[in-house]
Design a protein that fits this description.
The protein is of the alpha/beta class and 492 residues long. The chain is built from 19 helices and 14 strands. It is 46% helix and 17% strand. Helix 8 packs across helix 10 and helix 15 packs antiparallel against helix 16. The chain starts with 5 loop residues before the first strand and ends with a strand.
Length: 492
């Protein structure tokens, strides 16, 4: 990452979309620009969890405005992440496909734990260096993230489906503030958050911080009322709820520091925050400056260096957890990457890195059963919480693992995309060449692309020296016959 490089993060939250642009300088990121638009996409989910056409259009319109500012940014300079609303939405693919085209950059839906990890990174990076154990709370529109960590390392992360937009819609749908509504909302929030007490109990942390959304809004209201800036105490929440009850409805609330876009969801947000204070026995919470978008920016920096890319560490952890044969995984990785580098020379580092990870994880399902282990492995990758990975990234790895053996019909819908087909071909060839679970003789083995035709050739005498390997390669030629790709073999 060069000094002075501009980086951008787009946070597609349930209540607001945010754009953060920063400049990388001496290991830190200095803010250049920040934009926020209230989209309330979370309020556009119907009972079947489909986004309404109006909610999708509001999101697309916002992304179009962000796209104008991001013109000229390279792919490696931008990360766009979507959170709970798009995790829930059944028709999210329609929104994401069009939204990514409008923005000019892919939008990644991150899991709840990954969102929590990024939030913690954003908070920790903007706090002074300290050995204190930190609890970080982020109450968003449709989810609440809790993290306990120290310095830049998150030790426990969790995400719960409770937030200011969801709770306001459910318990204050008509905008009326009553004691009964607040009680019901708080009790319901505690029921959802109850399991957090074990991992995030009072003895697990020293200082509590609140990030973004509801906590930021409450901090601004209290500061405008003359309270110490950046601090929230339980008595402050009692005072604030009393003011809302006095107003009787959201549209009658008059509080200095309360922004207009926060007014419709303040009731739900306060209910969830009070529940968090009670369950985790918080006496005081400090308002943090960092948030998800800053975490995404620093994650871009880390991804530039393989040794600091958290995803590589996550892959190694999965290998250990599921007892992967490390020596075989390394053989397959080396052969697959060597083939891919011949097939796609030049700067293909993101695709090459994903192929490496797929090769390392191709036998991750063997711990469940050797029979159909590729299917077990794909299921594991599609359903595991993997730090550093967005959900679509894990799905792409799962597709490579699923398709690395057997017939290709099971993933035929994906084979029209060269970004999937070519890494998969290299992985399948590597698995075939490493069938004996020892280093294969690949000297003189060459692969080249001629449009949709891939030609694999070997030195004279190779087939006679390695008849089983040659047989497996011929089987591979047959496997690709019913796909958009042709594999040709020149093995004398």
């Amino acid at each position: 990452m060069h000094h002075g490089t501009l980086l951008a993060a787009v946070d597609l939250g349930s209540n607001s979309f945010r754009l953060e642009i920063g400049r990388f300088e001496h290991g830190h990121i200095q803010r250049v620009e920040y934009r926020k638009e209230t989209v309330r996409q979370g309020a556009g989910l119907d009972e079947q969890l489909n986004l309404s056409a109006q909610a999708m259009q509001r999101g697309w319109d916002c992304l179009a405005r962000f796209a104008e500012r991001l013109a000229g940014f390279a792919p490696a300079q931008v990360r766009a992440v979507a959170t709970q609303t798009l995790r829930e939405a059944r028709n999210r693919d329609a929104f994401l496909q069009r939204g990514s085209e409008i923005l000019g950059h892919p939008i990644e839906v991150v899991s709840g734990p990954e969102e929590a990890r990024l939030i913690y990174q954003g908070v920790a990076r903007l706090l002074p260096q300290s050995d204190e154990r930190r609890l970080v709370v982020d109450i968003g529109g449709r989810s609440t993230e809790l993290i306990v960590g120290q310095q830049y390392q998150a030790h426990a992360v969790a995400s719960f489906p409770v937030g200011s937009v969801a709770w306001s819609s459910r318990y204050f749908a008509d905008g009326a503030f009553t004691p009964q509504a607040f009680t019901a909302a708080e009790v319901a929030a505690k029921a959802v958050l109850d399991e957090a007490q074990e991992s995030f109990c009072r003895g697990a942390w020293d200082v509590a911080y609140g990030s973004s959304g509801t906590v930021g809004a409450v901090g601004e209201i209290l500061a405008a009322a003359g309270q110490p800036a950046g601090r929230i105490q339980r008595a402050d929440l009692d005072w604030l709820q009393e003011r809302l009850l006095r107003a009787q409805s959201a549209d009658r609330v008059r509080l200095d520091g309360l922004k207009e876009d926060r007014r419709p969801v303040i009731g739900g947000g306060i209910s969830v925050l009070r529940a968090v204070f009670d369950l985790l026995e918080i006496d005081e919470m400090r308002v943090a400056q960092g948030a998800l978008r800053q975490g995404a920016l620093y994650d871009l920096v880390d991804r530039e260096q393989p040794e600091t890319d958290l995803r590589a560490a996550t892959v190694r952890a999965l290998m250990l957890r599921f007892g992967v044969d490390g020596a075989q995984a390394e053989r397959v990785r080396q052969v697959a990457c060597a083939l891919f580098s011949q097939l796609c020379p030049g700067d293909a580092s993101p695709a090459l890195r994903k192929l490496q990870w797929a090769a390392q994880l191709h036998e991750v399902g063997c711990r469940i059963a050797h029979s159909d282990y590729h299917r077990h492995g794909a299921y594991i990758l599609d359903n595991t919480d993997a730090a550093g990975f967005a959900m679509p990234e894990m799905h792409r790895l799962a597709l490579l693992v699923l398709g690395h053996r057997g017939k290709l019909k099971k993933i035929e819908a994906e084979l029209g995309d060269a970004g999937t087909a070519l890494p998969l071909l290299c992985l399948r060839l590597a698995v075939a060449l490493c069938h004996a679970r020892r280093d294969p003789d690949v000297q003189g083995l060459a692969i080249a692309q001629q449009g949709q035709r891939i030609v694999l050739s070997a030195r004279a005498g190779w087939a006679a020296a390695f008849p089983q390997s040659a047989h497996l390669l011929r089987e591979e030629v047959l496997a690709w016959q019913k796909t958009p790709w042709e594999l040709a073999l020149t093995v004398p």
